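Hi D.,

Good news: the full-assembly prediction came through. Inputs first.
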Amino acid sequence: MSGLYGTMWIALSGLEAQQAGLETSTNNVANINTPGYSREVPILQEAAPVIEGNVAFGQGVQVEGIQSLRSNLLDLQISDETQQQGSSQAYVNAMNQVQTLFPDDTTGIGAQISAFFQSLNSLSTNPSDLTLRQNVLSAASNMASAFNDTANQLTQTQQQLDLNAQQQVQEINQITQQIAGLNLQLCELSSTGQDYASFEDQRGELIQQLSGLIDLSQVSTGNAVTLTTKQGTALVVGGQAYALSTAPNTSGLQDIYSAQGEDITAEISGGSLGGILQARDQTVPALQTQLDSLAGGLATALNTAHKQGTDLNGHAGGDLFEPIIGTGAAASMALAFTDPSLLAAGSDGTSGSNGNIANLSAVANQAVSNGMTPSDAYSNLVFQVGSSVSDGTTELNASTAMLQQLQQQQSSVSGVSLDEEASNLLLYQRAYQASAEAISAVNQMLQTVIDMGAQS
Amino acid sequence: MRISPDLSQLVLTALNVSDQAEQTALQQMTTGRRVNQASDDPADAALDVNIAFQMDSCDRYLRSISSLESELQTADSSLNSAVTALQSAINLGVEGSNGTVSQQNRATIGQQVSGIAQQILGIANSSYNGNYLFAGTADAQPPYVQNSDGTITYHGNDNVNSVQIENGQSVAINQPGSALFSAQGASVFQALNNLVTALQDPNSTTQDIGNATTELRSAYDQLTNARTFYGSTVDQLVSTQNFLNNENVQLSAQQNNAVGVDMNVAVTKLTNAEEARQATVQAAASIDNLSLMDYLSSVTTT
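Then the structure:
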């Protein structure tokens, strides 16, 4: 036995342990809404006993440390799913903007193509009428404008995505810088044996943020985390962050380069950067190509038909649209003349002939773009844009649901429960009171002993 | 097993889902369309584009047909007047070929026939919306011009305009004057001129006048034959018009099937979404009351 003072020390260790518990619980409650926070529990251990003869007397309690409760496996799964979700979300956002450019109703390119052929049919009933001729030219001009507007807005969307990609790269670089800093701090702390759970929490949160931006692979070595893209481009190794950079390519869009100067644009598959690049480099260019093919095919076919006819003055028809030179047919589509008398509606040189309108109208049923008629080509565009949004949304919903499930699982391990903390607080409080009661008892006993001395 | 203490995310997601369902149902009900963006149903949205094209075609054919109908009816009624006038000319010819008619009366009859020739010249030069109806495609100028010697020359051409009135089907919309009034070997004007000459020439025999009348009759036959074109074309326009109107109704139904909304379904969806939202809110409210902290503090205060 260690005497009354020994008992006092045991009670004191109880006070300290319960206070540590109280502190941990309070800290948990304080951080209940902190993103990335993992709940902590005190690790209590019996102090080494004192052995007297055959009897081992317990010597109270020791606080071994504070443990942060987290599941690394869940963290990894959440990181993977966050990359998926970030990519789908960014892609769907981008394509939702694009979708508005290809309406299936009475506005947009489809309706203008239809209106143009309608104006031709009206003209065929009275081919020398200048108002009807003007109507055809206006409809042709509106159709060209619709192509111009759609192509320009598509390009603007692409440029906006390009700007977004650059911003994302900057954000990625900031985060990898912070993670590298935390890696360094964690290595130093662990060598001094200090508590580092809060730094791990911060780093974990930053890694989740980074997962939303770019695809990631992570490997833990000691207390440091090594981060690379899925294709192996280093982002953070130990205390060193490897910043990505951007430089314009031949189409004026920014390519992404690794710190080693390698072009990794095509490799990036996850996170919002992955989704943005998919829309910017694949879906939007594919749509541009088809739009150009439709505009170019339509203009060329109408020019060919127009040249077969004669105008109001009996002269042979020229081009109806400016001939397409190079790429960008949709953006550059323009009417070749504005004088309605130059419209080659006739076939025999007289003003009353409508013989060439049949040739012009026939273009509506000709294969002008990839073997499709103008209306089929446009409806195909609508289908593709719609599918890209709806497929993307399906993926997004799936990964959002998956992510939520994983987060619930993670929360069941790491989340702070107020009920639990309330009951813990009660436990610690009661134990603290009991230890204090013990000290008070020892104190009285000591008083008794002192009084004994005073009486003698 | 430890249960995730954070139920707010679940509540938020559930609210989000029911909000979205509510919004979709409302949008469907207000627009009357199930497909409001292509992504709602890409295949049906693409179908909608094609149906809209076909409906536009129907509309434009119908518009052309109604403008053609009035033009063709004008031409037909002009020709009807010409036919009536020619009948009187033939009757006059028959009257003039009667041996009992005096030379003076013959000359008077000749003048009447000459008047009819002028009337028919006017008809042959009739126009619609500023275009000469019987000039072929050279319809900017009057097709028939009377020369100083009284003969009439055709300045139009033999060409015919066609207009598309439904997919893959066009109709000719005019007969040139060269098929109506000045056909090879059966020219109305030539025959009228010959009859006038025969009636006014004192040396003509009743035989001569009779021959001229016969010539006029064959020109008359040519005109009435060629004229049937207008009647039959109008008939064809009317039947195509009926076909297109019917087609429009069917296309509308197809479009409604593809992108339209079933109101009953939309209303049910809206009700379901609203109920789901209400249930979620109620559940969330009762979760909030279940904190041990709340319970403990209420115990200590009492």
